[in-house]
Amino acid sequence: MGDIPEFKRGQIVGARLAGASVTKTASLCDVSRATVSRVMSAYHQERRTTSNRINCGRKRKLSERDVQVVTRIVSKKHKTTAAQITAELNVHLNSPVSTRTVPRELHRVNIHGRAAIAKPLVTRANAKRRFQWCKERKSWAVDNVKHVLFSDESTFTVFPTSGRVTVWRSPKEAYHPDCCTPRVKHGGGSVMPALDPSVWAFRKAAAVMRPSAPVLKPCSSVKAEG
Q1: If DSSP codes are grouped into helix, strand and coil, which group holds residue 1?
Q2: What does the CA dihedral 6, 9, 13, 18 come to, rounded to 10 degrees?
Q3: Which residues lie closer than 8 Å to 76 by C-beta, 6 or more apart?
Q4: Which of 77, 91, 200, 204 has a Cα-to-Cα distance from 63 of 20 to 30 A?
């Protein structure tokens, strides 16, 4: 009966005391006949319409202010572990909590541990140059692209790519930079483009490419630093 609003329970009791039948009361209050009978039985036993479930159950270990502290910790360190979050939180608490309490409170505010989304490693400066390159050619038509030879040249260094990375985030933070893990081609390792032709990628936009087609480099090569 605790899931029925107090106002609704008052309506049910009022309708029954006014002489409405169980069926009529159920129809007026948009509830089932069983709900009407259950509310009236509780009313006759306790002579009230309020629920006994108010403030029932175990009291929460963390206050709303403590939960805000936890969310701030996670927002600054998305890739931290539950044990590290708990240790940092307990510094501010008089009564320490366990590592099971922190994830439970994070889940309550819709923050869960998820696998970080892999994305290409692009530096801020490189992304700015790519965006500028696209803006300068936003008015190009399909015919312009057909006469261009695109080349992709990259150099790579050893980069840690093994293992799954877990981050604490809300659904809307899925593609937040701090909630993604960078990835590079070739799975890491050391590659010299001049010696390895497979690193060079030429894509023709048309079946026949004219020899006089210009070669455009969208941006400088990306170097992944481990």
Answers
A1: coil
A2: 90
A3: none
A4: 77
